[in-house]
Amino acid sequence: MDPGDRARLLAGEHHDPHGVLGAHPVRGGVVVRVLRPWAKEVAVLLPKGRRLVLDADGDGLFSGLLPLLRKVPAYELRVRYDGDDLPVDDPYRFLPALGELDLHLIGEGRHEELWTALGARVMTHQGTAGTRFTVWAPNARGVRVTGDWTYWDGGALPMRSLGSTGVWELFVPGVGEGALYKFDIARPDGSHTVRADPMARRTECPPNTASMVTDDHHVWGDAEWMERRGARPHHEAPLSVYELHLPSWRPGLGYRQLAEQLPAYVRDLGFTHVEFMAVAEHPFHGSWGYQVTGFYAPTARMGTPDDFRYLVDALHQAGIGVLMDWVPAHFPRDDWALAEFDGRPLYEHEDPRRSAHPDWGTLEFDYGRKEVRNFLVANAVYWCERFHLDGLRVDAVASMLYLDYSREDGEWLPNEFGGRENLDAVAFLQEMNATVYRRCPGVVTFAEESTAWDGVTRPTDQVGPGGFGGLGFGLKWNMGWMHDSLGYVGKEPVHRKYHHHEMTFSMVYAYSENYILPISHDEVVHGKRALVSKMPGDWWQQRADHRAYLGFMWAHPGKQLLFMGQEFAQGAEWSVDHGPDWWLLDPSYGAEADHRGVRDLVRDLNTVYAATPALWERDTSPEGFQWVVGDAAEDNVFAFLRFDADGSPLLAVCNFSPVVRHDYRLGVPDTFAAWAEVLNTDAARYGGGDVVGTDPVKTESVPWHGRSASLRTTLPPLATVWLRPA
Questions:
Q1: What's the pLDDT tens digit per position in 353-392?
Q2: Cβ neighbours for 279, distance < 8 A, ≥ 6 positions apart
Q3: pTM value?
Q4: Which of the residues 281, 390, 395, 567 is marked catalytic?
Q5: Which of 448, 594, 619, 682 is catalytic?
Q6: How many CB atoms are closer than 10 A to CB 351?
Q7: Are 10 and 59 a contacting pair, CB within 8 Å?
Q8: For residue 230, what pLDDT band results from cuts at 50, 70 and 90?
Q9: What are the start-end ranges of the H helices in 566-691?
Q10: How far apart are CA 289 and CA 284, in angstroms?
Q11: All residues at 6 or more sequence positions from 487 whose CB lies less than 8 Å from its CB, including other chains
Q12: Is there a catalytic annotation at residue 448?
């Protein structure tokens, strides 16, 4: 062997080990070279029982000549270690197992099924079963596969470089599902780093960090759901979301155990969708899943990828859509994961001012690099296609859009036009949304975006006044509504009149985007208090405010999202370590009825909501909303009408004062003779004072609030009432 080839092989820096190892015709026969560190003897086994013991050349290299042969014969190896004599198929007798089209698409940054080309893939290649390993590492001097089947010694399995794409490949016969592996990468400076596979579709359970060879076996039973989902555009359909953190919803349960409990619970409450907090693999449990190291792998803490599919399938068969939080904004710096993956900045931007996230100590993706953009776009498609997810909520979009996000002057670089917009991130988000919507009918994407960026939910091909095409999301979290409305209800009723505008301001911009109203996990942790605990007053008043607020939220234009535990007025903040306080619903607990009443209200809110198109059909149309009275600050009263596409109305009246208001007159359309209560948050079964209207309220020809007719009704204290034409 050429001394240079030998040195590079042993150093793990050879770009073409297949050109040296394996069997090759030479003058006088066929030479066989094998690299097997720690082997005592290597023999070549040929047809008809012929056997050739190879010469030991030192450093784990063995070689020998098969004389008088003109072409490479069929053969296998017999490798003897201390106490073991093993048959082995030679990895270096195989042609590349990755096609030219795959390489072309990877090079273009347009491989929409990247998970089929990179990572570990179980397959039969040239008639032999095994696993193809591929990894993108363009700065590496060499890459080797190491795994539990090699006792984590990667010296025997150097990979070959497949040209200018930066992809390295090796087909390893005999390796199948369940095998653990990593990549040993020779960095540009000659040092080595051992890394988990960025494309791993399954991982070891943390704190272990190895990747695992896997394949999909789940047989889906949700064909009916998949066929009809998205039949109506999401912004014109009922959408009520129950957000939860899977590991702590019922601590200790795996995906399959959750599938026995979660669908029934959510269906009973009437939510149309669940939203899982980040599910992709992450090393630190306390990050809640938002510092991802395994972007293609559901966390192994609760089971296998097929177990996760089983959970999604069970929810679909119960008629419940599944959304998931997706985190393309940043990744952690763990030295076995993505950070400086091949010895240089690769997934992150090479300029620290663009790569270091100032808030979370993490790294931001380089959205301008086509391969990185491809990694993320394909990842979004992967979750939707391979796990049948119905939507992705994209985390921390604002931090992606602005170059100066959480940075002071001098800590950021402007874009090519001198602006603060991250043009690469804009292009990435547009490509991601366009690709997901094209490939995955019925899927919806959500943006957690906290600024006034123009066109978050505008189509990507429609340019706005700022010169940008829309980002292409289906819905945007209404963080302004959340902040303002929580600020209002957190005030003592006597002070609310000075903050009345905080409840009405959302209607100034309500139709600038397609909104969802979030009371999410972020609002019930870190000293912000649980929803009921934000309310002033004694326990009765807190619960009354809680119920009135939910009634206001469900009637307000926009979809709604509620985090677990808030549906039964849990008083404590959420903790990732123990989850919701389910004991509050134990019949033996003295105040159980108080919490059960709130949960019953949430069920009824969802039931009436789903059956009332006026509450969702025209969420994004100004014609679907009219104020009845929006300036009754002294009374702490808000009243508005919602209309469906046919003009059928629902009247919502919120009294955020602790006094009963008798004979309260409200202007209403004169086309209906009477109105009847369909929901009252003060009902006794919800834990209220039971100031309810049992009889329809007649419309009177008394002009009021700018209308020619009006009605008089009694407003219960700290309550929301919904009325429909009788």
A1: 899 988 899 999 999 999 999 999 999 999 999 999 999 9
A2: 246, 289, 298, 299, 308, 324, 325
A3: 0.95
A4: 395
A5: 448
A6: 12
A7: yes
A8: confident
A9: 592-610
A10: 8
A11: 499, 502
A12: yes
